[in-house]
Write a structure and sequence with these properties.
338 residues; 9% strand; globular; disordered N terminus
Amino acid sequence: MITPRTAGTGTDGCRRSRAAFTLIELLVVIAIIGILIALLLPAVQKVREAANRMKCQNHLKQFALACHSYHDANLRLPIGSQGRNSNHPDWAYTGSRPRTPFIAHLMAYIEQTAFAARYDFNINFNSPPNTLIITTRFPMFDCPSDMPQLTGHPQTGDLKSNYGVNWGSWSFRQQGGPTNGVFPLNYGDQKGRAPFYLDFGARLTDITDGTSATLCMSEVLQTPWTQLPGQAFVDRRGRIWNDDTFCYEISTRLTPNSPRGDYGYCDPSDTRYPCDPLSEGLTAAAAPDAYMGARSRHTGGVNASFCDGSVRFISDRIDPVTWVALSSIAAGDLPGDY
């Protein structure tokens, strides 16, 4: 009679021990894996950010080339903004011309011809049928390094963007700064004129400082729709569809990612988006004097396109004099290294 073998018993009747990790060995392996992940994660994040930065550069490149295509068709760059009346003492909206943002002119040149065909330049940007366009999310308008605002304006619904135009070195109303000011923020409007302004888009021949030495566009952050008590408007930084001040108009008054705050409708207590303390409770009358700097979530600087179509990464440490020099089209200044 044959006796069956029991599980785990050899032919000699001895019990075999199963091969397995001890608890200590498992803990060591887990610790090693954790260390490897900790070492690898910064490298992965660095590669991801490099890809995001490159995508932002590509977006700016497309916008710059679109500006050139527009210039080829219209013999000038798109106007920076239309709507406010510069002949009015408060630069108020008098209804004399439809409110039109810079980006509306470029839609046909960034492969959005269907939307461009629907945009009506005879009415304000926030009136139907234009509302269909301004409430549509275009991936090209967002930089993946920043967190996009998923909702639009509380009333008009228009969505924000991470890109804005070069608006000189001072404010919406006064691009070159007061002539009795402190250098280099004292160019005055004629000397300090940027490629884009109210009812103005420069011809490339107007850019006598050189298209390769004149900023076209750069980056801004998409801020929350915050509105403080007593403040006339919500935080509109990044509103690419709104022709108004403090929306997409970038001033070189502040160097890239400056810790000094933007001056406009914003919350000084929100350190994620630097805001000048004097902005609290800002009235509508102060709108033409608002300004904001170029900002990004990239480490060490911002991407910027130039009027020759090139795109470069500008360091946060750029000399302020050079940064201002890059904003004017015909000041005759010579920017330093950057």
